[in-house]
Amino acid sequence: QVQLVESGGGLVQPGGSLRLSCAASGFTLDYYAVGWFRQAPGKEREGVSCISSNDDSTYANSVKGRFTISRDNAKNTVSLQMHSLKPEDTAVYYCATSPMNHYGCPVTSWEYWGQGTQVTVSS
């Protein structure tokens, strides 16, 4: 059974860090593009960071220099390391996969989605 499970969300103070993980089962992430997305209350879902099957990565302007996407093929996971978190980073974070690489980090055209993990940045 194909499944994506996000973990690592939580409550953190502004300026803090979190590491989100997207674990896959039923298939191997190595050959897939993987994206991290977020959706805040009342807002549309947006692309945060994506990594291609060739390990090319892209970032939203709002997170460049603060977030890093990476693969751990041994664990069949893709992580999103988040530093210098801001209240505006508060959202439900989702990972998604696609057998096709995308230009940039579009919200559409992903095959599988996880259930999401909540990230709250607040003092």
Would you give an account of this structure?
- The chain has 123 residues and is mainly beta.
- 0% of the residues lie in helices and 48% in strands.
- The chain contains no helices and 11 strands.
- The protein has strands spanning 3-7, 10-12, 18-25, 33-39, 46-51, 57-59, 67-72, 77-82, 91-98, 112-113, 117-121.
- The strands form 2 sheets. Strands 2, 4, 5, 6, 9, 10 and 11 form a 7-stranded mixed β-sheet that branches. The protein has a 4-stranded antiparallel β-sheet with strand order 1-3-8-7, with no helix packed on it.
- β5 (46-51) and β6 form a beta hairpin.
- The radius of gyration is 13 Å and the shape is globular.
- The model has no long low-confidence stretch (mean pLDDT 96).
Compact summary:
With about 120 residues, this protein is mainly β. It has strands spanning about 5, 10, 20-25, 35-40, 45-50, 55-60, 65-70, 75-80, 90-100, 110-115, 115-120.
Blueprint of the fold:
Layout: E1 3-7, E2 10-12, E3 18-25, E4 33-39, E5 46-51, E6 57-59, E7 67-72, E8 77-82, E9 91-98, E10 112-113, E11 117-121
Parallel strand pairs: 2-11
Antiparallel strand pairs: 1-3, 3-8, 4-5, 4-9, 5-6, 7-8, 9-10, 9-11
Q: pLDDT average, as an integer?
A: 96
Percentage of residues assigned to helices? under 10%
Contiguous runs where pLDDT drops below 50 for at least 5 residues: none
Shape: globular
Largest sheet: 7 strands, mixed
Q: Decide which structural class fits the backbone.
A: mainly beta
Distance between the termini: 40 Å
User: Number of helical runs?
Assistant: 0
Sketch the topology as an H/E string, one letter per element. Answer: EEEEEEEEEEE
Number of strand elements: 11
Rg of Cα set: 13 Å
Strand residue content: over 45%
